[in-house]
Amino acid sequence: MKILIVDDEPLARSRLRDLLDDIGGHTIVGEASNGRDALTQVQALQPEIVLLDIRMPELGGLEVAMHLRRFDNAPTVIFTTAYDEHALKAFEANAIDYLLKPIRSSRLEQALAKVHRPTQDQPIIPPTHTDGTQSGRQHICAHHRGGLKLIPIDEIIYFQADSKYVSVFFQGGEVLIDDPLKELEQEFGDRFIRIHRRTLVANAFIESLNRDSQGQCLLKLREIDTLFEISRRQLPQVRKLLAAIGGIGAAE
After folding, report:
1. What DSSP character marks residue 32?
2. pLDDT tens digits, 68-90
3. Is 106 domain-assigned?
C-alpha cells in the first residue's frame, strides 16, 4: 500500500521510514512536515494510508483527519503521537489506529494489518473533548485553482447553498465547497446561524436587523453591502441571537 508520513519532527519521520522498510510490503510515496502540506500531498499523491502526527504547528493532525474524510478516495489514517490524551478524539475522527511514540515495529505492523478502505458514506463526527465540548475544524478546506485553500473559520462571513455546491464568502474572496449546508450547520452551529434555507451567516459578522418598505426583515452583515433576507421560520431564532449578543440594532 502507498503510505504518506506526516510529522513535524525529522527524526520521527526517519524512524517511521526505517520501521516501514523493515516491515516491507508498502511504498512510501511522500513525507510532509505540517498539516497544510499533508493535505496538498494527499491530493497529489493519493496515498492509501497516512501516518499522521497529532501535535503540529498551525494545523494539527486531528483537524487534518477531519478534512481528509471529505476527500474523494479518502486515505486511512493511523495517528502517531507522544500523547495518549488524544485517543478518544482520534477514533472519533475516524482513525483506524492510534500509536504511541516511541513506536514499536510490531505495533506498527499490527496497525497496518487492520487497514481497510473506509466507506464514503461513513458519518463525519467532529472530535469532542472529554467534557463534551466540540473541538471541530478551525478551517474550511476547498479545492481551488488546481490546489487546496484553507480558510480560517473566523474569516468566513457566510455560507450560501446553490445547486449541488455551497459558496463560502470570506474576508478576501469566495470559493466553492461540496459540504452540505446541513452538515455545516451541525458542525458550526455555535458560530453560525441559519437565516434562510440556503444561507448560514457568521454570528460575529452580524451588524443589524432591518426592515424594507414591504416590511420584510433583512440582515446587515459587516463588510457586505448586500442585505440578506430572513425567512419567517428563522426570524425568531435570529431575534433570539441578537438579544443574546446585545448592542446590535434590531428592527421591531
Report:
1. E
2. 988 988 999 999 998 877 676 77
3. yes
Residue 53 domain boundaries: 2-113
- Could you tell me the pLDDT band of residue 122, with boundaries at 50, 70 and 90? very low
Residue 68, CB-side half-sphere exposure with 13 Å CA sphere:
34
Structure pTM? 0.78
pLDDT tens digit string along 179-218? Answer: 999 999 999 999 999 999 999 999 999 999 998 888 889 9
**Residue 142, helix vs strand vs coil:** strand
Arithmetic mean of pLDDT, 233-252: 79
Helix, coil or strand: residue 183: helix
List the grid coordinates of 83.
500523547
Residue with cell 486511512: 76
Q: Which three cell numbers stand for residue 50?
A: 497516512
* 43 contacts 151 by C-beta, under 8 angstroms: no
Do 80 and 40 belong to one domain?
Answer: yes
Nearest one of 62, 70, 27, 65 to 47, comparing CA atoms? 27
Residue 131 domain-assigned?
no
Does one domain contain both 178 and 78? no
